[in-house]
Amino acid sequence: MDLVRNPIVPGDFVLAKLKGYPSWPAMVVFPETLPEQVACARHCAASHAVKFYPDCDFAWVETAQIQLIRARLLEKPNLVNKRKKLQQGYKAAHQAL
Question: PWWP domain: which residues (predicted)?
């Protein structure tokens, strides 16, 4: 997979993993842009605010569960046998580039 490891900053496109879900395309956002109930949610210091595609759901995700992705992975992801919603997420993230 076309993944890279660098410092994570708002505006980065990432694969973010929440318990019970596969790694999902998302964008790191500034905490100030989070809905109030998400912004106030308990989270550790080593976490980032993300917006998931395609539904624009927000969450805090631990840094260890985030991987930066390059634009070309969003252009041609390997989506064989992946959920339809996940396929839509990759497509929406690519369009947001």
Answer: 10-72
